Amino acid sequence: MTELVLASGSAIRAQLLTNAGVAFRVRTAPVDEETIKASLLAEDTLPREIADALAEAKARRVGMKEPAAFTLGCDQVLDLDGTLLSKAETREQAAEHLRRLSGQTHKLFAAAVIFHEARPIWRFIGEARLSARTLSSEGIEAYLDRNWPEVGQSVGAYQIEAEGSRLFSRIDGDYFSILGLPLLPLLTFLTDRGVIAH
Q1: What is the number of structural domains in the chain?
Q2: Which of 32, 44, 52, 75 is catalytic?
């Protein structure tokens, strides 16, 4: 049976796989995401394609060292009217992101790529649309009082699986993609390839 390697340090992605009963191990390798992203933006690359390229870069980085395994690389991109928001590095930046999302609808693209024998053999891009309620400055600060720095691990500075759900009035699309992993298509692929049992 082919081994699955998760090329991500994301706790929520690991938890999703564990909850689904998938055996895997984690091996991360540094990828200069900001440089890749800046280069793609300079070429007017679409946000969903940027997510895909970043996921492939991570899968490739680890997969070239583990050619016999199925190496899973993932990435998520937040698109707010053509502007990409990355993870907030400071609480002030998180507050600014939430102010920008307030009263707006944005898209999340969650890409997954599997590398095997030195090439990508599977890819999928999940999409969701999230409409944020109008958020007051006081509400944003109170939310960050309760949830910073944990929400700094997520693009948009919210975690939909936790209190972040209270920030939204409507969500359309795949829940697992919001969490950063298009789980159901991935499970179908792993089942078809015999990595997990039927």
Answers
A1: 1
A2: 75
